[in-house]
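Hi F.,

I've been meaning to write this up properly since the lab meeting, where we talked about keeping a consistent format for the predictions we share between groups. The idea is simple: the sequence comes first, exactly as it goes in, then the structure tokens exactly as they come out, then a line or two of notes. No screenshots and no reformatting. I'm using this chain as the first example so we have something concrete to point to.
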Amino acid sequence: MSDTPPDSLIPYDEIVQETLRAVVGRVLAPIHSNQDLLGDHHFYITFRTQAPGVSVPRSLFERFPEEMTIVLQNKFWDLKVHDSWFEVTLTFGGVPSHLTIPFAAITQFHDPAVNFALQFSAVVEDEAPPPAPEPEKPHVVKSEDGSNVVTVDFGRKK
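Output, unedited:
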């Protein structure tokens, strides 16, 4: 008798990831600009810039070739949520920039007002492992204090 569990024929990890990414869509759906934010709520959204479907201006892609974090708080508008992606206009260096971000590209979602965070495994297909994180990037997911943090990181078997 073996102690290792059998491989599941049901992709539970993918189902859970997809469902939790839908939470991000439900949170963003009623918001169209910073004027629609309730109370102190605001959002840090980290995503893979090279993921399929991501559209960011070339200048931002050059600055953030792997991963980028945006903040939906003070200056953003034209936020539109679709079934599998959202789009938003933000300013970078005073220049308005339109971004399109599929939910599958998101690796972290954080609302610091209530210390709620979701962390996702990157959706990658036949890709080399991502490089080690750069030290200057802020780490927004904290769970040591028992806050409302959900971390999802399932290892994929190949």
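Notes:
The chain has one domain: 12-124+140-151.
Strands lie at 43-48, 67-72, 76-81, 85-92, 95-102, 106-111, 116-119, 149-151.

If this format works for you, I'll send the rest the same way.

G.
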